[in-house]
Design brief:
The chain has about 325 residues and is of the alpha+beta class. It contains 11 helices and 5 strands. It has helices spanning about 25-60, 65-75, 80-90, 90-100, 100-120, 130-150, 160-170, 175-195, 195-220, 235-245, 280-290, and strands at about 5-10, 225-230, 250-255, 265-275, 295-300. It has a 5-stranded antiparallel sheet with strand order 1-3-4-2-5, with helices on one face. Helix 1 (about 25-60) runs antiparallel to helix 6 (about 130-150) and helix 4 (about 90-100) runs antiparallel to helix 5. It is elongated and about 75 Å long.
Length: about 325
């Protein structure tokens, strides 16, 4: 066995006096965060509107989820798409209100209303008649719009609320996995309403959208597990916990055969979880402390608890 004991260092900063006044910069930070989230939601609405009006509608392709159902009903019964987006999303918004709080429900309601208004009044150009380009880039714009809105604390489609709730209670499924299952039924119906070719192109649209969504939600700040073997493990632990603000776990290990020739020496093996954006700084700090340190990193699909940097809806 390489290690015989695991020592979890779960050092957290001690909470302050409950009766103490909040930091003077807290209201400003909240206001800036609110503006940032609003900008993300607005950018998401404009991007999703571009995907719908600039690409999909003119070619009779559909998106998945409630938006896809609204587009199917609009095509089958000549109904306004904007009204479908508003009314079909209502039950899902009520579910979001009950399960995720009024703040989330209000933000999502405003985002969905904004998308409906965008589809109704914004004069997007019809970008290309090429069906393949329409399917791929329509999906990219829609996926980017959904991802930006979710990073801003809202959703643009009611089925994403169901997906978020399921993914919270079922660690095996991510948001994109749940949306895929729901959309299988929608694209099956599209084959009968719009035709097989349109349904197949719509599936391609969904694939492009889901990949873009997954990248925006997980790829930019993908969790990465890092194992560090070094003679300066205590200094590395100190840097991670105090300078980077992340928790670490120490494995009690023993060296084997290697280029240095040491054998049987006890040492602490450092393990931590950081995001992809934090990884370069971590590697730089480790190289500064020990240029000969051995680093092993691997992707982590999800992680909860501990001193992790929180991601949207995590």
């Amino acid at each position: 066995m390489l290690f015989s004991q695991v020592l979890l260092l779960n050092k957290r900063s001690q909470p302050g006096d409950p009766g103490a006044a909040p930091p003077s910069g807290a209201p400003v930070a909240r206001a800036l965060r609110g503006l940032q989230n609003t900008a993300l939601v607005v950018a998401g609405i404009l991007s999703a509107g571009m995907g719908l009006k600039g690409f999909l509608l003119s070619s009779h392709f559909i998106d998945g989820g409630v938006t896809g159902v609204s587009m199917l009903l609009a095509a089958a019964f000549d109904l306004p798409l904007a009204w479908g987006l508003l009314f079909i999303n209502l039950p899902f918004l009520l579910l979001g209100y009950r399960q995720m709080g009024p703040g989330f429900a209000v933000r999502s309601a405003l985002a969905i209303a904004g998308l409906a208004l965008c589809v109704a009044v914004v004069p997007y150009p019809d970008v290309t008649p090429d069906l393949l380009l329409t399917a791929v880039f329509g999906g990219v714009f829609i996926g980017a719009g959904i991802g930006l809105a979710m990073r801003g604390g809202a959703v643009l489609d009611g089925t994403e609320i169901v997906a978020l709730l399921v993914s919270r209670h079922t660690p095996l499924l991510k948001v994109s996995d749940v949306v895929l299952v729901l959309n299988l039924f929608i694209f099956g119906a599209a084959a009968f309403v719009l035709g097989v070719n349109e349904a197949l192109y719509s599936i391609l649209t969904y694939v492009a959208a889901s990949k873009t969504l997954d990248f925006l939600l997980n790829g930019i700040e993908q969790y990465t597990g890092v194992t560090i073997i070094s003679e300066h493990s205590d200094a590395i632990r100190h840097v991670i916990t105090h300078h980077l603000g992340r928790g670490v776990t120490l494995y009690k290990g023993r060296s084997g055969y290697g280029k240095r020739g040491e054998q049987g020496e006890d040492l602490d093996i450092v393990f931590t979880v950081v995001t992809r954006l934090e990884l370069p700084r971590l590697r730089e700090e480790v190289r500064r402390l020990d240029p000969k340190a051995f680093l092993l990193q691997h992707r982590i699909d999800d992680a909860v608890g501990g001193m992790l940097k929180k991601r949207p809806f995590h």
